[in-house]
Amino acid sequence: MLTTISGHGRLAFGGVSFMLVAYGVAAGFGLAYLARPGAYEVGFGAAVLGLLGLILYTGAVAAFRRSPIVGGAMAAFTASEIFESIVSTVSALGGFGLGYLVDYIGAWAIEAYLLYELQAHARSLVHHLSDMASEEAASQVRRELEARGFRVVSVRVRTVVPGRYHGDAIVLPPCGMDPLAADMLADEAVYALRRMGVDLTVHVDLSGRLSRRE
Description:
The chain has 214 residues and is of the alpha+beta class. The protein has 6 helices and 4 strands, in the order H-H-H-H-H-E-E-H-E-E. It is 61% helix and 16% strand. The model is unreliable at 1-7 and 208-212 (pLDDT under 50).
């Protein structure tokens, strides 16, 4: 009897959740500060620090993009730091040469971008954690089972993490097929789907009896 692969892939979303909270707090502090403007001086060192941040965050984005689960969200938020570094450098130079209002406008641009990224990735996180069905994975399951002569009665597939799916299917074997042969074909389909990232339980209906293969 085949055993289903188990894991804790969704724990990776804990990092995304913490990141959302951390950036949300930062955005809140930024909004509170920007809502009470006052004249200030901008030094040339602010532009130098912005440029240094740009170099460091560019390397971080390249590293985060290698993660298939949380890489997109982490890279996007770190990309916001790249945007922030560019705007900070340019606005700091403008603030140093022309006046603090140039820097202040740049700060609002950064705040607006951060708020946009927060809501976009909060929605994405909810979507990934909602056990949504995957039509693509379900079609993949049907193709593998029908290619082995089964008639598919039902298929249920949910997304565990991007690229990893879990579900079950009920199938009917061709008339006259030996039960052992039907079970072997079901096992074969399960192995093939597992290589594609689908952990499937197949129930083979044999004349009113149910033979389970995981």
